[in-house]
Design a protein that fits this description.
single chain, alpha+beta, Glutaredoxin, four-stranded mixed sheet, 4 strands
Length: about 220
């Protein structure tokens, strides 16, 4: 039986609607990344200030990218203390609340990223993502715990039973795998990353460069 989440509405007359034109930019994130949290808090304003269409927000599984690229998290290396200090410095510079680190961190984000994938499928990507990031890095709550994910979901009116069913569905699991593989094919090897055309901008410190590239691409369209 086909997963209900995979069922698409077909236009009257039997013809599928045309594919929308791709957005100028795609913002790739994983809810376990504190640098992606800072980028998520900044990116919409940067694109709005430049009078550009908002980027597409695409959840991907960072662990899947690491596996494909043979990398691992800086948080598991001797660079952890320096990385934490840099996150806290960047958050303060962006005017965000002092970072509260979840325990444990990093944690297992698989369930949270499946919920983010479901939220994207119903048009709640940005609202859920920001709520979840704030739970994690402003509230210090571990998103490995499904109850904390449910609190973030409730903030954007997603019912806990709905997100639990969606996260367990084959359709959502497949979408997250496909999105992660597609991101890797575009050259994404970490988060946060913004892809504009064929250009890949990795890191919160590259957001402004991505906006410049998006403006240039927009003029060429």
């Amino acid at each position: 039986m086909q997963d209900p989440i995979e069922i698409e509405v077909v236009a009257a007359g039997g013809a599928a609607p045309p594919e929308p034109e791709p957005r100028l930019a795609t913002f790739y994130f994983d809810l376990g990344s504190p640098f992606a949290y800072i980028a998520a808090e900044r990116i919409s304003r940067l694109f709005a200030d430049a009078e550009l269409e908002q980027p597409e927000w695409q959840p991907v599984l960072l662990g899947g990218l690491f596996a494909r690229c043979g990398r691992s998290s800086w948080a598991l290396t001797e660079a952890r203390a320096a990385g934490i200090a840099e996150v806290e410095r960047r958050a303060a510079a962006a005017g965000l609340q002092p970072v509260r680190w979840p325990e444990p961190w990093p944690g297992d984000m698989l369930h949270a990223m499946r919920v983010a994938t479901y939220a994207k499928s119903i048009g709640r990507t940005v609202s859920f993502t920001l709520a979840a990031f704030r739970q994690a890095f402003a509230g210090g709550r571990d998103l490995s715990d499904p109850d904390n994910v449910a609190i973030a979901a409730a903030a954007c009116e997603l019912h806990p039973n709905a997100i639990a069913r969606a996260a367990a569905s084959d359709g959502v699991k497949r979408r997250l795998r496909v999105a992660t593989d597609a991101a890797a094919e575009r050259g994404v090897f970490g988060v946060p990353t913004v892809v504009v055309g064929d250009a890949v901008f990795w890191g919160d410190d590259r957001l402004e460069d991505a906006v410049v590239a998006a403006a240039r691409l927009g003029r060429d369209r």
